[in-house]
Amino acid sequence: MAVYYMQATWSKRAAKLFDKPAKAVKPLILYPNFLKRKKSTYMLKILYITHEMDPYTGLTELSEVARVLPQAIQSKGMEVRVFMPRYGRINERKHRLHEVIRLSGINITVADEDNPMIIKVASLPIAKIQIYFLDNEEFFYRKNFFHDDDEKFFTDNDLRTLFFNKGAIQIATKLGWEPDIIHCHGWMGNLVPMIARTVYKNEPVFKNAKIIFSTYSNYFDHPIGKNYLANAQLNIPNKQLTQGLNYNNPNCLDLYKIGVTYSDGIINSSNGSMQELHDYIDSLGKPVLKQIYTPEQEEEYVNANKTFYEQMVS
Q1: Cα angle 264, 233, 62; round to 5
Q2: For the chain, how many structural domains are there in total?
Q3: Model-level pTM greater than 0.70?
Q4: Are residues 20 and 96 in the same domain?
Q5: Domain at 129, CATH number
Q6: Cis bond before residue 125 (omega within 30° of 0)
């Protein structure tokens, strides 16, 4: 076993000052376990970024996965936090949301407009997981999630998406909690990996973390909005942008491609994921977990994710 020594001695000057004879101090022996915690006892920190989560939303299968997985992972000894939008339909009194003053008041610039962000927090019932809600009156304070009463896609869903991605990045840097794994779920968090690996690549919260992206079904076929990346105003040099991706007017498939391209690992969590996306993911040569979630195989799904996390940080 390697042994590390730290030795100190009285200097002649110090001996004279304190009127004590100069003598050697017994070496302090430090073993590796004191310098670095054993892997088996270390509690991994997992940050989940999602636009759906039960009991706050019930849009697609993602809502269930985003509740089941963090809850089960925390029960297995890992530390968990969750970021998601604070939609107008979420009842603050019922779910006991309260504002986090030290994290609120940040302006998020989207399409040349400064948009104030308010952060609220609540605990997921039973599991006591901290859920951080990103709120903005213009973007999220409406009764519907992504479609109006006539089932038409909101025309500003692109700007809402950009706000959520940039806001999540900002809160992660200010939370004072550095995750080992950042696990993005669904199409809406598509720019988090890109921003973390380019503009914020030297921030400790991202530099020392592995980013995983989970893909789900195709939520919409039409383009989300023109000048998508330009409206994010990230000032990313062209040489850091992967060529061949649709940054201008992407549809859901394009957003998934952006997300997985800049991630360290990928999880396919849905039977509804697109074959073209599967082929693209295979071409990347990155670690991939192909584990479909079903309520009947919940434990198997959770254990597979846990093992994938551990492999990614090993």
Answers
A1: 45
A2: 2
A3: yes
A4: no
A5: 3.40.50.2000
A6: no
Q: Are residues 16 and 116 in the same domain?
A: no
Whether residues 109 and 14 fall in one domain: no
7 and 114 belong to one structural domain: no
Looking at the DSSP bridge assignments, the partners of residue 267 are: 214, 289
Q: Which amino acid is at 186?
A: G
Please tell me the distance from the alpha carbon of residue 146 to that of residue 46, in angstroms, as a whole number: 27
Helix (H, G, I), strand (E, B) or coil at 67: helix
Distance of alpha carbon 159 from alpha carbon 31, whole angstroms: 52
| Cβ atoms of 206 and 200 closer than 8 Å | yes
Element (H, E) at 34: helix 32-35
Token representation of residue 90: 């979420």
On whether both 50 and 169 belong to a single domain, the answer is yes
Q: Are residues 66 and 196 in the same domain?
A: yes
pLDDT tens readout for residues 78-107: 999 999 999 999 988 899 999 999 999 899
- On whether the CB atoms of residues 122 and 97 are closer than 8 A, the answer is yes
Instruction: Select from 259, 213, 109, 112 the least CA-distant residue to 170.
Output: 109
Question: Which residue range is the domain that position 16 belongs to?
Answer: 1-36
Residues in the chain: 314
